[in-house]
Amino acid sequence: MSVLLLLNGPNLGILGEREPEIYGTDTLADIEKAVAAEIAPAGWEVRPVQHDGEGELIGAIHRNRHDTVGAIVNPGALMMAGWGLRDALAAYLRPWIEVHLSNVWAREQFRHESVIAPLASGVVVGLGAYGYVLAARALLHLGAGDA
Ligand code: DQA
């Protein structure tokens, strides 16, 4: 079975309750279910991981380096200064896509830079929970499992 890593960073475990006017009402469990449904026909399954701490996220990337076919990464606020996360992703062996629920470009200036985006195969912003589904579809399209 091909496994897709779904990695969510700080404050994303409380999706659904967290500023729903910005991030929507879908919970992380809803998102995990939607991604699982998208990739199931291809014989892939999702491995969801959420941590608030950067070190735990880095550990999860290391542990999943060899046995996942690709990853969807919402780094949350670590997009702005998560250099350790960036280096862990540099050593990740498969294609991965950065996702942000909100359109970070339409928000505060401090959200306009991502230290991980230059390493991503692609970036999806501003499409809410559907952005994760699109990222999953893109990884299937890229043939992440064959990389
Ligand atoms: C976010 C955008 C980030 O700027 C913010 O810190 C988050 C969520 C998003 O999905 O829109 O935690 O990554």
What would you say this structure looks like, in words?
The longest helix is centred in the first third of the chain and has 12 residues, at about 30-40. The protein is built from six helices and five strands; from the N terminus they run E-H-H-E-H-E-H-H-E-E-H. The protein has helices spanning about 20-25, 30-40, 55-65, 80, 85-90, 130-140, and strands spanning about 1-10, 45-50, 70-75, 95-100, 120-125. By secondary structure, the chain is α/β, with parallel strands linked by helices. The protein binds 1,3,4-trihydroxy-5-OXO-cyclohexanecarboxylic acid. 1,3,4-trihydroxy-5-OXO-cyclohexanecarboxylic acid binds near residues 76, 77, 101 and 111.
Please report the number of helical segments.
Answer: 6
- CATH fourth-tier homologous superfamily: Dehydroquinase, class II
Distance between the termini: 15 Å
Task: Classify the beta-strand content into a percent band.
Answer: 15-25%
How many structurally independent domains? 1
**Estimated radius of gyration:** 14 Å
Which architecture would the CATH scheme give at its second level? 3-Layer(aba) Sandwich
Strand order in the largest sheet? 2-1-3-4-5
Can you write the helix and strand succession as a string?
A: EHHEHEHHEEH
Number of strands: 5
What ranges have pLDDT less than 50 throughout 5 or more consecutive residues?
Answer: none
What is bound: which ligands? Answer: 1,3,4-trihydroxy-5-OXO-cyclohexanecarboxylic acid
Question: What is the CATH topology classification name?
Answer: Rossmann fold
Largest sheet: 5 strands, parallel
Averaged pLDDT: 96
Q: What structural category characterises the helix and strand content?
A: alpha/beta
CATH class term: Alpha Beta
Describe the global form.
globular
